[in-house]
Structures are given as C-alpha cells and as structure tokens.
C-alpha cells in the first residue's frame, strides 16, 4: 500500500459516510465518541460543553465526509481528534471572552494563555493515548511512579538500554504537543 493511502477502514468509512449510511455514523460514533468527549472535556472542563462539542464534531463529520483528506490529516482518528481540539478551543475562547467581558474586561493575553495551555494539554493527552503501549507503559512508570530508567527496565522486564530508548522516544513524541500553532478556527 502506498504511503499516502489511508488504511482500509478509514477509506471505507469515508465512502459509507459519503453515501449517507446512518449505520456508518453509528459505527464511527461507537469507535471515537469517548476520544471526542474526553478530549473536549480536557479542554473545557465541563461535561455539558464536552457533550455539545461531541455532537458538533459528529454532526460535522456526517455533513462533510469529504472534508477528510487522508494525505493531509493522516488517519480518521487523527482527523476527528483535530476537529475536536479545534472546536473545543473555539468554545473555550468564546466562553472565556464572554466571562472577561462580563467582569468588565480582562487581558486578551491571559485568555490566549489559558486557551493555549488547554489545547496543549489536550494534544499531550491524545499523544499519550495514541502512542504504542510499550512507550506509554515506560512513561507512566517514570512519571506517575517516579521510577528511573533502571527501575523502569526492571519493572518492564527489558534491558536498561531499551528502557532509555522507550523513555526518550516517548518524551520526544510528547514534546511535539507544544509545537503546533493554534489556528483558532472553528469546524
């Protein structure tokens, strides 16, 4: 399969959505609803707002299946996560702007910093959840259980070199969470 060819499931799902198959939307929802809701909740810290973003994202996907371009977006999962982050950040900006206006105004810079932190946090969560299980396990041991690379190697049953490699690669992936610019566009 060519490098820019999407996986079979993604390609078939896009075709089914384009034909208007309601069952395809249900399958897509079953597969990605928790990703969408959790990502939106991470940004917005509000269940009802996350529910609304979830409805908006799946509504957008249903109405615009041809907006998915696998060469630009990668997997459908990545595309849906990107749509979710974009819509959640848009909602956060709207909510914060209203709150600042209601308080008599505030620093636009403060608002942008809050939005940026929320977006980076959501992206980092997505990266961790998407990385291969061995990398995620090594990072979780090192970060949450405060293990060094020797202890991590022993806990995982791998060599110290392999533990260092996993930690380094996991951290490199996480470092990309803050490198993408926010574009501020809604869906």
Automatic annotation (TrEMBL):
Record SUPFAM superfamilies: Sigma2 domain of RNA polymerase sigma factors, Sigma3 and sigma4 domains of RNA polymerase sigma factors
Alphabetized Pfam families for the sequence: Sigma70_r2 (PF04542), Sigma70_r4_2 (PF08281)
Cross-referenced InterPro entries: RNA_pol_sigma-70-like (IPR039425), RNA_pol_sigma-70_dom (IPR014284), RNA_pol_sigma70_r2 (IPR007627), RNA_pol_sigma70_r4_t2 (IPR013249), RNA_pol_sigma_r2 (IPR013325), RNA_pol_sigma_r3/r4-like (IPR013324), WH-like_DNA-bd_sf (IPR036388)
Protein name: Sigma-70 family RNA polymerase sigma factor
All copies of domain RNA polymerase sigma-70 region, residue ranges: 28-95
Alphabetized UniProt keyword annotations: Sigma factor, Transcription, Transcription regulation
Family note: Belongs to the sigma-70 factor family. ECF subfamily.
Domain RNA polymerase sigma factor 70 region 4 type: residue ranges: 128-173
Superkingdom as given in the UniProt entry: Bacteria
